[in-house]
Every structure is written in C-alpha cells, then in structure tokens.
Amino acid sequence: MIKAKLASIGKDIYTVISELVQDTDIINFAKISPDIPCSDKLTELAIKYIKEKSVEYTHPHGLFELREEIAKEIKQRYGLNKSALNEITITAGATQAMYTAISTFVNEGDEVVLFEPAFNSYVPAIESNGGRPVFVQRTQPDYHIDWEAVLKLINTRTKLIIVNTPHNPTGAIFNEEDIAQLKKITNGTNINIISDEVFEHMVFDGQKHLSVLSDEKLAERSIVISSFGIAFNVPGWKIGYYVSSEKLMTKIRKKQHFQINAINTPFQYALADYLKEGVDYSLTNKQLEKKKQFVNGILKDSKFKIIPSKGTFYQLLDYSDISQEKDTEFARRLMDEFGVALFPLSVFYHDSIDNKILGFSFARNNEVLSKAAKQLLKV
Ligand SMILES: Cc1ncc(COP(=O)(O)O)c(C=O)c1O
C-alpha cells in the first residue's frame, strides 16, 4: 500500500470554525483574514501590472527591483546590509517560505526546536521531511521563552530552532534578552534559526519589534520570513519573502526553484512600485492598536481575564473564572449558546494542553468587534 505523508493530520482550526459558522448567524471571531481594507494605491498598481505583465515569468529568486526595495528597508530598519542579489528571495507567502526553508535543512532524524503554542504549519513541514519536532512550552502568563529549558534540549541532532515574533496567537514579542539568549545558545553550534516575523509591523504600546536581523551575528545563521499578505492586508495574494546569509540562501534557492520556480509576476511589480514610494507601516499599526483598545474596553467588564497582547492582531482570554470545561467544549458552547466563535488555544499544542484559554482576532470592523464583545459580556 502507498503510504501518504501527513495522512493523520486533520483540518486546521480556522477551517473548522469557518465551516461550522457558514450559513449561521454565529460571529466568526476567529477569522484570520482581516477586515482592514488594503491600500487603493496598491490594488491599482496590481491591476495595472495584471494588464501589462501577466505574460512574463520573473526570475526564480524574485523580481530584482522588489528585492532591492526590501534590501533598502532592511538597511533602514536594522542598519544591516543585505544583498538583493544573493540574500533575499521572494516567495509565495510565508507558509511556502517556511516549508521550503525547513525542507532544505531537515533530514531524517534531525531535531527541530519549536515553541508552543505554535503556528500550525511548522510541525507538518518538519515531519514530512523526516524531522522530529522538539517542543518547548512558552511560560504563562506572558508566554515568554524559558531559554534554560531550550539549552537542555539542544544536542548534535538539533538542526533548527524556529522562533516567531510577534507571536501568533499569544501576542508575545521578543525583547533584548531573548535575542541575547538565542545568540548565546546557538553560538559555536551548527544550528540555524528560522524566524517567522510576519507580524513585524504590528507591535503595540510603544514597544518595538526586535528582529533576529537586529544582531549581525545572529542574522548570519538565520532565515527571516516576512509576508506582504499580512503587512499590507492582502493575505489572498500569497506573497512574501525570506532574508538570510548568502551561504544559507544559496541552498534554499535550489529547493525553491524546483518547488515553485517563479512567483506571481504582476504582484511583484506592484509591490516594488509601492515600496519605492515609501510605506508608513504605523498607520495599520495604529488602527489595530485602537481596535484592540476598543474591544478590550468592552471586555474589561466581562468575566474573562484579558491576557495582554503586545503584537499581532490576536487577543487571548482566560475563562478559568467562568468554567472548568475543556477549551474545545467551552468554545463550542459559546458558539451554540452565545453565537460567537473563538479559537481554543489547546489546538496549538501537540498534546492539546488545556489552560482554559480562547482567542480571537481584533483585525475586524468595529461593528463586529462590538457585537462579539457584547455577546461575551453575557457569559
Ligand atoms: C505566524 C504566521 N506565520 C505564517 C503565516 C502565513 O502567512 P502567508 O499567508 O504569507 O503564507 C501566518 C498567517 O496567518 C502566521 O500567522
């Protein structure tokens, strides 16, 4: 019999919830695509280039002009020189970038350290390449990383550490100490780091996103993944990029070339023009911060405990004062009795740890935020 890879994996939580709420009045408060519209300028550019450039393939590493614009942004943000020619590659979104990077470096029996709760695409990518995920639980209540625990799990089989900052779905962000510890732990090893930074422009309360690119030495062993889909509210475009050292990027590009060959041409031209004009990332950030304050302003009078979210557009709620039901069951009851769907946090743990926490996205229009939060006040 043919043995299919990943045969035992079921649907992800976002798909499960969207199927459950379809054709009902239940508010999908777990929806991952934002209600925030993308810039008119960007869509106009996309339409222009769909007309003008649709018959072209771009270079397998991505449109050079776009890579140059990314290099300029990195220089401006982190003071780091990254070569558009050798160290930046355009991808079909962050998910593909993650899969390609993992499959470039992970072989049978290799170990990959990752932190839970974890975004759902990491483990399937590790396992389909014969790797073994090594899980470290983030520490509550602020979901920081216990670097002492990480150190104990590292050995000669460890090939990768996957980090994610700002973190989906807890909203935790890296601080200087995290960068220093990651550097210390990997120093003198052959471990590479994949840093999922798709929420890099969504950090609140005057705090700053700390990329692994902010440290030159760490940057050398890292592959940093970004998503234009998330940055510009165009997740449906499925376009992003990774940045690495020339040594690592050369290996990744070989894999990517035969996985996807070239990325969508018109969107690359549109994004290159858009970046050339200079983007004010703080606008979406401010908008999201206001939404967070708005919805949490309503929820502060509820029986849920709000877990501070420092970044992303996700908010976690602790319901342990309300019920001791399993989070999956409680989430189901909220849908059936209160008409609002949140995601249970246990689905982001390999062993379904249940800490009585649910989450939602605040990248929604204020009417939805208000309606959903008011339902939660009744719980
Ligand atoms: C942490 C994280 N990584 C990666 C992705 C995937 O991004 P993309 O849509 O560009 O594949 C997402 C999407 O929500 C995400 O939350």
Q: Taking Cα atoms only, what radius of gyration do you get, to the nearest Å?
A: 21 Å
At CATH level 3, the topology of the largest domain is: Aspartate Aminotransferase, domain 2
Please give the alpha-carbon distance between the first and last residues. 50 Å
- Secondary-structure-derived class: alpha/beta
- By CATH reckoning, the class of the largest domain would read Alpha Beta
The proportion of residues in beta strands is 15-25%
CATH architecture of the largest domain: 3-Layer(aba) Sandwich
The helical percent reads 40-55%
Number of domains: 2
Summary, kept brief:
The protein is of the alpha/beta class and 379 residues long. The chain has helices spanning 13-21, 40-53, 64-78, 94-105, 122-127, 147-153, 176-186, 216-220, 228-231, 246-260, 265-276, 282-299, 327-338, 366-377; strands at 27-28, 88-91, 111-116, 132-137, 158-164, 192-196, 222-227, 240-243, 305-307, 314-318, 340-341, 343-344, 357-361.
How would you describe this protein?
By secondary structure, this protein is α/β, with parallel strands linked by helices. It folds into 2 domains: 13-30 and 281-377, Alpha-Beta Complex (Aspartate Aminotransferase, domain 1), CATH 3.90.1150.10; 41-276, 3-Layer(aba) Sandwich (Aspartate Aminotransferase, domain 2), CATH 3.40.640. Helix content is 40%, strand content 15%. The protein has a 7-stranded mixed sheet, with helices on both faces. A 4-stranded antiparallel sheet has the order 9-10-13-12. Strand 3, helix 5 (122-127) and strand 4 (132-137) form a beta-alpha-beta unit. Helix 2 (40-53) crosses helix 11 (265-276), helix 4 crosses helix 10 and helix 12 packs parallel to helix 14 (366-377). It starts with 12 loop residues before the first helix and ends with a helix. The relative contact order is 0.16. Bound molecules: pyridoxal-5'-phosphate. Residues 32, 93-95, 119, 164, 168, 196, 198, 227, 229-230, 235, 238, 240 line the site of pyridoxal-5'-phosphate.
